[in-house]
Amino acid sequence: MDQLPKASIAPNEASGYSNHLVGLVYTQTMQILEGKLNNVTLLYLMLLFIPVYGAYGVYKYRKSYIDLPYVGIPSGPFGSWRAAYTYLHSSADVIWDGYKKYAREGKAFVVSTPGRWMVFLTDPDQIAELAMSSDQKIGFYEALTERNKHGTISEPTLGDYINTYHVDVIKAQLTPRMASILPDIRKEGAAAWNDSLKASTDTWTRGVVWDIALQVVARSANRCFIGLPLCRNQELLSIFQEYAIRAAEVVYIMDISPKILEPFLGWLLMSRHKLPQRATKIMEPAFTARLRMREELGPTRWETEKPNDAITWIIDAAAKKDKSQQTIEQMVWRLMWINFAAIHTTSMSTLYILYDLGANPEYIEPIRQEMISVMDKYGGYNKEALNNMVKLDSCLRESQRWNNVVSVVISKVTLCDYTFKSGKAPFHIPKGTFVTAPATATHFSEDIYGSDAAIWKGFRFSDVREKMESAEESARLQATATSKEYLAFSHGKHACTGRFFAIYQLKMLLIYCLLRYEFRLPAECGGKRPENKIILGRRAADTDGILEFRERKEWAELKCRWGDFDEDGE
């Protein structure tokens, strides 16, 4: 092979040089294969490739470079790797340092995380822009799929094939039916409290709050989803609870793991436990019976006579999808994901509010008196009464602000080069950049929440709402309301769809708890609630924390004042 390809002989312009390079690579490769390559030719080839690869590297670097301040990168070798390790155990500190430094100027900043560089927004207007941005320009599900690399572990929501019709089930079925399902939450919540906590009026009884919260939340939610007796099936509830906890953990572990380990970690962390298969074994008879009922009734009668629960909602939604989504196992997957949303975050929120009130007991009696007066006015445990418990609502919103189950929200990835045009400091980022909003840092901003932003003030929002004349303006400070400055449930088109159910459920469960029990932190806590932990940007309460409970003497009269609480739950 003595000649270069003819097209590469005259490198007198860019295209000619490219052809020359291709021809040279081809020729020298053939010489390597034929054993004809001498040391001079090898040296020439190496010298040729150094600037070529260098130029390509510079091009790629400039193409992907994020022209923003970088935070938390130590000097010296492997700085970004060391910063990513620091983020693992001190993410809140890293984000807060960047926020304090750049928020006043409205500048975004970049942090090295174990999986990637992340851009954090500080300007509320830019947070709003991110929240409302087109999914064709800044992808929400694309970021979710990339971060949650565990594929079939979390199917059917994530992975290469995304089908989130269970989100539509929550929007179209669960939220509009809140008024009709509140009695089920009340009955099963009361029964679960009664079964989980054996307290008397004479002595204080200690309880692990997380264990109580899991039972009360899981049972009351599933009374609405699957009804009696399945909502009390402890094996099924344990599967739902384990899946909720494991799914939250595996997302973060897989995100920081090398790709080569994904199959093994997927099996180790999730697949080997066969949670969907175990849930399907228990739920299959219920789904089979409901499908048979649907067929026997026919379309017209089915619409008027079908049961009002998640089994029906999922079957109806699946019927509009392709056949692969209509298997019982796939539909049980949807039920598991609805439970994931309902159990984990709501149980954690229950834990937070009980810890917060335990550490701030001066709020308990005013909330209790509001509950009684409002239910007297509106006739008991109904949606209208819950909507008018402004002090309780304020405490829940403050607890979410102060604790915030997810510390970073609205995480998206740019699908093209994108320019943030709003805010004090507009900026440009390249395609493939991950962008997010620092919820906890935003919630602790003194510019937004005042000089007492770091203090838990239960009536922070009710004090403001009580002075407002406009009901519409007041509604913007409800616990379910999101904004560019209040991100507990995220914000924008991908805000948490289940937040209305979660808040109504929390209110109903707290009514029972506060009216029936006195509770306090143990003396050895010194009035301080158990500290929260932060792992990979996710805030978690201490699940080993204990409260002491005692039944109130007033409960004997209150439990029947607006209709029996039905502690047997039937």
Automatic annotation (TrEMBL):
It comes from the Eukaryota. The chain crosses the membrane at residues 40-59. Its cofactor is heme. Gene3D superfamilies: Cytochrome P450. It holds the Pfam family p450. Heme binds at C496. One of its GO terms (molecular function) is oxidoreductase activity, acting on paired donors, with incorporation or reduction of molecular oxygen. Keywords: Heme, Iron, Membrane, Metal-binding, Oxidoreductase, Transmembrane, Transmembrane helix. Belongs to the cytochrome P450 family. This is Cytochrome P450.
